[in-house]
């Protein structure tokens, strides 16, 4: 039990499910790419791929925020 | 007349830059809350004292390079969609930084480390390995310095309407950067970054509104025209991009997002943070800066209609052709300053990192020098005497590295251009050694080194052999996969590690930083969470 060298510190590094939120940008930018690689429909005049990339860029801070919220709820923030 | 005005604006701001950079360290030498005056830690990582705002400014500043003004617009102009990989990998990298940043920060702080070479040397208890990684990283970073030098040269000569020649532009970038970074290190870079970010945000924000209205009567008509006339630019693989398709985008984003979190300059930013919380907040705020990258991309595509027929390297000037064509001289000068600072800040951090790696890891690996140095520092984490000497050596290396890049820019520009092809993909090969090594004890030094060597050699063979991308796949990712496979194989089949230090000494176990004044072994003093 290597972690016992640090009594009092939580052993939660393996149990931070909220960190899964950090994969969200990878899903938005990469996993769905074949579906969004298109010009139409245009959204607010933007070709769809560019609109989607803008959306994914703006969603990135949200995903980090969600991960952080999970951490804080566990009393480590 | 035009040239005089824009050159004057530009010159004034360059003087301001140097002054600002130098002012950054005023008062730090005497005060500093008990920190050792003017040591390597103060110079290399700002004494680990930068708060959320400075870290944001600095890290945004170093990632938004002259590429953003020249390359992003140029790629947008030439290829279209493939340029989006920059946004994608930076966003993914920032998200990943939420975990990696605090981890590296805590590890470096606990063991008094100032960079990735130092971290590697500590993890594997092999000073020579730190020196070897320093060499590899230097080879990968030098081309980036040259890119900034040439980028700034092009910008300066364009915005001065030719009054300042390319060669003088190159020299200016070297002179201005060296003038402040040798003295004030990371802190100076952070201060200059403030000026840079204000100007970049203001000028790009302005251009994003002005250019579409000036040339196209607004966004609607511009976008409509792009969609109607240039659909090829709007999806992968883009316009005549030569294989930059979806698979290339996926693999490049993946490998770059892993690399950017351990890139030596990113790590310098991490280590400069006052606490881990500043880094976590930044992982959240930094992606907003990425949105700004859409501006040069869009304007690069808009330039297709205004200045058609740019080709090759000429397309890098897509954005500046519009600027010079449509704005008065003082505004051209101001935008030039923003672009020039986008070269200067990253260049400063590149040079600083090279200096730090050599001062700490190469000098530190020479036993004769180390023996003399550490003898005086018995008991302390790192003594003042070796720190002073390492800092002096580091500052010397900064000047030498910058001068070397400048010299090569004049005499053999192609050498560094060729090297720059492997810069990022070569650096990616450090990921297993560094990140996996810090969380997985069994990874032995033999395994990590074997993986690294195989990965770097493979990348060189593929890239210089003209096989990047390999069937659409980024060569760096191919190298990384083989690298990892070799590292795992050697770990399982090769010699066992002989390192008896406890896990807590070797690994980055707790992602949480030790709270201030909490002793590593003290169980009783751990205070309740403060927020």
Verbal overview:
The complex is a heterodimer of chains A (77) and B (531). Chain A has 77 residues and is mainly alpha-helical. The model of chain A is unreliable at 1-13 (pLDDT under 50). Helices cover 49% and strands 0% of the residues of chain A. Chain A starts with 23 loop residues before the first helix and ends with a helix. In chain A, helix 1 runs antiparallel to helix 3 (48-73). The radius of gyration of chain A is 18 Å and the shape is elongated. Chain A has one domain. Chain B is mostly helical and 531 residues long. Chain B has a single domain, classed as Sodium/glucose cotransporter. Chain B has 23 helices and no strands. Chain B has helices at 2-23, 40-45, 52-63, 66-69, 71-78, 84-111, 116-124, 127-159, 166-216, 219-229, 246-260, 264-271, 276-290, 294-306, 318-326, 329-365, 367-375, 384-411, 413-428, 431-439, 445-464, 475-493, 503-506. In chain B, helix 7 (116-124) crosses helix 20. Chain B is globular and about 70 Å long. The termini of chain B are far apart. The relative contact order of chain B is 0.17. The model of chain B is unreliable at 30-37, 371-384 and 513-531 (pLDDT under 50). The chains are: A mainly alpha (77), B mainly alpha (531).
How many domains of chain A? 1
Strand content of chain B: under 5%
Low-confidence stretches of chain B: 30-37, 371-384, 513-531
CATH superfamily of chain B: Sodium/glucose cotransporter
Average per-residue pLDDT of chain A, rounded, comes to: 79
SSE pattern of chain A: HHH
Q: Which class best fits the helix and strand makeup of chain B? A: mainly alpha
Rg of Cα set of chain B: 23 Å
Output mean pLDDT of chain B: 84
User: What is Rg of chain A?
Assistant: 18 Å
State the end-to-end distance of chain B: 58 Å
Q: What is the total domain count of chain B? A: 1
């Amino acid at each position: 039990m290597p972690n016992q060298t640090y009594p009092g510190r939580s052993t939660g590094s393996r149990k931070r499910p909220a960190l899964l939120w950090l994969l969200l940008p990878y899903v938005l930018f990469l996993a769905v790419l074949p579906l969004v690689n298109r010009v139409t429909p245009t959204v607010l005049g933007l070709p769809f791929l560019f609109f989607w990339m803008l959306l994914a860029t703006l969603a990135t801070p949200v995903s980090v925020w969600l991960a952080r919220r999970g951490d804080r709820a566990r009393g480590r923030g | 007349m035009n040239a005089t005005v824009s050159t004057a604006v530009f010159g004034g701001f360059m003087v301001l830059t140097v002054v600002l950079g130098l002012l950054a360290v005023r008062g730090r030498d005497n005060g500093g809350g008990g920190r050792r005056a003017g040591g390597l830690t103060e110079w290399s990582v700002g004494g680990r004292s930068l708060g959320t705002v400075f870290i944001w400014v600095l890290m945004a500043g170093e990632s938004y390079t002259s590429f953003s003004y020249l390359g992003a617009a140029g790629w947008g102009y030439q290829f279209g969609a493939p340029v989006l990989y920059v946004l994608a990998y930076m966003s993914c990298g920032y998200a990943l930084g939420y975990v990696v940043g605090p981890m590296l920060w805590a590890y470096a702080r606990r063991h008094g480390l100032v960079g990735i070479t130092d971290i590697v040397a500590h993890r594997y208890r092999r000073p020579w390995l730190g020196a070897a990684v320093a060499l590899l990283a230097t080879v990968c970073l030098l081309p980036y310095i040259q890119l900034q030098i040439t980028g700034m040269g092009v910008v300066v000569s364009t915005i001065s309407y030719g009054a300042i020649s390319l060669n003088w532009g190159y020299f200016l970038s070297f002179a201005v950067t060296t003038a402040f970074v040798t003295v004030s290190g990371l802190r100076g870079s952070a201060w200059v970054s403030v000026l840079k970010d204000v100007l970049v945000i203001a000028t790009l924000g302005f251009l994003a509104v002005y250019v579409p209205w000036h040339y196209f009567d607004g966004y609607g008509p511009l976008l409509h025209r792009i969609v109607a006339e240039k659909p090829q630019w709007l999806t992968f693989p883009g316009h005549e991009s030569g294989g930059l398709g979806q698979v290339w985008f996926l693999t490049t984003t993946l490998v770059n997002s892993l690399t950017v979190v351990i890139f030596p300059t990113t790590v310098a930013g991490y280590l400069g943070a006052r606490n881990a919380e500043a880094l976590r907040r930044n992982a959240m705020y930094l992606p907003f800066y990425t949105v700004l990258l859409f501006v040069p991309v869009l304007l690069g595509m808009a330039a297709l209609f205004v200045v058609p027929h740019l080709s090759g390297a000429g397309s890098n000037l897509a954005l500046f052709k519009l600027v010079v064509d449509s704005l008065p001289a003082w505004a051209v000068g101001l935008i030039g300053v923003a672009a020039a600072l986008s070269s200067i800040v990253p260049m400063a951090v590149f040079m600083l990192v090279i200096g730090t790696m050599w001062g700490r890891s190469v000098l530190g690996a020479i036993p004769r020098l180390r023996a003399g140095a550490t003898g005086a520092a018995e008991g302390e984490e790192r003594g003042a005497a070796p720190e002073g000497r390492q800092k002096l050596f580091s500052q010397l290396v900064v000047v030498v590295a910058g001068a070397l890049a400048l010299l090569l820019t004049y005499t053999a520009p192609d050498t560094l251009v060729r090297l720059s092809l492997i810069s990022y993909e070569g650096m990616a090969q450090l990921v297993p050694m560094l990140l996996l090594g810090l969380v997985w004890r069994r990874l032995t030094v033999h395994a990590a080194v074997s993986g690294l060597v195989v990965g770097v050699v493979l990348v060189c063979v593929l890239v210089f052999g003209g096989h990047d991308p390999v069937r659409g796949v980024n060569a760096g990712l191919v190298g990384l996969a083989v690298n990892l496979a070799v590292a795992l194989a050697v770990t399982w089949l090769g010699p066992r590690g002989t390192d008896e230090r406890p896990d807590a000494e070797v690994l980055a176990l707790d992602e949480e930083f030790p709270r201030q004044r909490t002793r590593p072994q003290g169980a009783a003093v751990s205070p309740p969470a403060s927020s």
